[in-house]
Amino acid sequence: MFIVVVVTYNVLNLPKVVTFRNGNTITYTYDGSGNKLSVAYKAVSNFGKIDYVGNKVYKNGTLSMMHTEEGYITFSGATPTYHYYLKDHQGNNRVVMNQSGTVEQVNHYYPFGGLFGEGLQTSNQPYKYNGKELDRFEGLDLYDYGARMYDAARGGWGTVDPLGEKYYSMSPYVYCANNPVRFIDPDGMSYDDYYSSLNGAYLGSDNMISKNMRLIDDDKFKQIKNDVGNNILQKGLSLQAEGTKIKIDDAKIQSNLQTVADKSSTPNANGEYQEHQIFLTLDRQTATISSYVGDPGTHDKTTISYYPAPSIGVNYVDRPGGLVLIGQAHGHPPGNIPGSVTAKTMSGDFDVQTSASINIPIYGLDAMDGPTNGSPTAIHRVTPNGVIMNNVGKTSSGFNIGRDAMQIWGKRR
Fold first, then answer.
1. Coil, helix or strand at residue 241
2. 300 phi-psi bin (left φ>0, alpha ψ -120 to 50, beta other)
């Protein structure tokens, strides 16, 4: 049995340090948006640390696992082993098997997420109920949902719902309106951002910033929002049930993004530098944001080819009616003219004009300082309204450019 003496929180109401009576501690580190960067576990005679870098998880400085859409990868030296989740309708990881089909873990849950059976524990992977990480240090047994920690033993959150004042009839600590059979809460917040399944236009988010984005039919969104018979909580839960959560293939995007930087920073067979590019895309059928490799350009510009659909206000990348263009990223290579210097920012004329004319955010990658060779490099951005922002992130360093592009493009009108 664990005995917690003190829990301190940061300004985002996220746990900062958990101190147990025996002197052991858990220390959390986050970025400015509340994304968890690391967890340090300190026992009387032991110390361990977990670092989270994009889809990679490091334990004590060694790569422990890489998350994928369907599971994760572990490594023995340089040899990878692929593991796959079998999930139920709520996204709970029920079975874990490896690439050979060997079952490594079986989980059974009470409705509120408590474990009542764990079989075949040859794998100690911690992602379980709703696919969330279960912290079992000192018997703590809390699920990390991102915005809040969840205690399945009592079916409640550790901190209040930021929208708790909107529905006084319900406790701000309650999980899914006390109905976990019907509803799930993907990140510890009750509401998501909603975008049109027709043209990707931003529809609303119930006055709350959320980490999740969903596609939904415009009319269905308006119907639920205008239903005077439901309170805010009921409307939010109904919207979640009707909307389709947008998935982001961040692994593919990050790989293509780094390739753009690497190729743009390296001369071609003729000894000349070229701008390379990728398109950021939305597949409305699968609700997936990914990337699509475009044709390389010259040393100072690329050409964005697309299929316009003005009747609904979108542009397609691969074919009419196909992938929707929501953003573009290109490298800024060294100049081919001796003595020329490439500025570490977006072009005040060409990039700004292109972003405004196509109505998408455009990103520039620093590739002018020589071969990047897979190393992170700075990313700059211009939005359709002409605003340039330098150093919004770096390649291969956790900047979710797919989410960033969708949020800007969706609000382009």
1. helix
2. alpha
Q: By the 8 A CB rule, do 188 and 150 touch?
A: yes
Identify whether the C-beta of residue 130 lies closer than 8 Å to the C-beta of residue 91: yes
- Residues forming beta bridges with residue 29, ordered by sequence position: 38
Tokens standing for residue 406: 């969708």
CA distances from 70 to 83, 85, 93, 214 (A): 8, 6, 10, 20
d(CA 151, CA 2): 13
The DSSP output letter for 137 is G
- Cα(72)–Cα(83) distance, integer angstroms: 5
Choose among 124, 90, 118, 123: nearest CA to 106.
118
Residue type, 180: P
H-run or E-run covering 258: helix 250-264
Name the DSSP letter for residue 119.
E
Short-list 186, 144, 187, 191, CA closest to 164: 191
**Pairing of the two strands 378-382 and 362-366:** antiparallel
- Give average pLDDT by consecutive 10-residue segment, the chain, 413 residues: 79 92 92 89 86 93 91 91 92 93 92 80 83 91 90 90 66 83 68 88 67 89 79 73 91 95 93 94 96 92 93 93 96 76 85 94 93 92 94 89 94 76
Tally Cβ neighbours within 10 Å of residue 242. Answer: 15
Buried b (16+ CB within 10 A) or exposed e, 98-135: beeeeebbbbebeebbebeeeeeeebebbbbbbbbbbb
Encoded amino acid at 65, one letter: M
User: In the chain, what is the greatest distance between 2 CA atoms, to the nearest angstrom?
Assistant: 71
Contact 16/29 with Cβ under 8 angstroms? no
